[in-house]
Amino acid sequence: MLRVLDHLQLVLATDVLLHETHEPSRLADTARLIEQEGFLRHPPLGVALGDGRYMVIDGAHRTASLRAIGCPFLPLQVVPHTSLQIESWDHHVPVGAWWHSVLEHPALCWLPSEQVPLVEMEPLVTVQTETARLAAYPASAALDTPEQRLALWHQIVETYSDTMTVERLPQGTRVQPAPGSLLLHNPRHSLARLIEIVQRGQVLPAGVTRFLIAGRLLNLRVPLDLLRAEEAPGRLWHELLEHWQSSLRLYTEAVYVCEA
């Protein structure tokens, strides 16, 4: 078996950057669960930025929770850039007042799908309703900058994510939304583009990016006492690595994990 644990590192929380924002209610629940259990079950995954820092690609809420409960260190499974694929999540959302406010947003221009090929710029998002497919664009050329486009994307997603139950679906899973709901299709970004955004000090909206990664490390149960140490716990960390190495099991068949 390959030593997948060679990619598990104990890093300073201050050296880790997030590529997505977090959902406040989910963050509170995650932090409370970690505190109650006294350990972190699944380490976040990240990529090296080449300057001593890392970008989390899976585990934003776990990372933010560890910071919130006072952990100077966090375990990070560092994934080689060539070992991942990036897609995006579709959001299946009930229609409500939020949808009308988004349609009437003065900074947004909504066009039906048949007009999309006539527009040179990329849409911010596309939305499939029960009766139509629409695409959102900045309402003016002044808003068509990377910073403004990102801000508008945040506004769209936060309008419903703060108040509605959002079902995340792998892009293309469902062609038509269920009655009384809609499908919001988020754009897909390259890894280079994500790193550029993060290094600029910005983040994407919560729950829009989907990373496909083989060989995730699960159920390590990293003790909180180790992550709360004032200095890097070198000896204990290496003892844990050896323990985990002797206890790993590689599943090559499909498995179903209940996370209730």
Overview of the molecule:
It is elongated, with a radius of gyration of 20 Å. The mean pLDDT is 90. The chain has helices at 24-37, 60-68, 97-103, 146-161, 191-199, 224-227, 234-247; strands at 8-12, 16-18, 39-40, 45-48, 54-58, 73-78, 84-94, 108-112, 125-128, 133-138, 167-170, 181-185, 209-213, 222-223. The strands form three sheets. Strands 7, 8, 9, 10, 11, 12 and 13 form a seven-stranded antiparallel β-sheet that branches. A five-stranded mixed β-sheet has the order 1-6-4-5-2. The longest helix is centred in the middle third of the chain and has 16 residues, at 146-161. It is built from seven helices and 14 strands. With 260 residues, the chain is of the alpha+beta class. The protein folds into two domains: 4-84 and 210-247, Conserved hypothetical protein from pyrococcus furiosus pfu- 392566-001, ParB domain; 88-188, no CATH class.
Break the fold down into its secondary structure elements and pairings.
Layout: E1 8-12, E2 16-18, H1 24-37, E3 39-40, E4 45-48, E5 54-58, H2 60-68, E6 73-78, E7 84-94, H3 97-103, E8 108-112, E9 125-128, E10 133-138, H4 146-161, E11 167-170, E12 181-185, H5 191-199, E13 209-213, E14 222-223, H6 224-227, H7 234-247
Parallel strand pairs: 2-5, 4-6
Antiparallel strand pairs: 1-6, 3-14, 4-5, 7-11, 7-12, 7-13, 8-10, 9-10, 9-12
Helix pairs in contact: 1-2
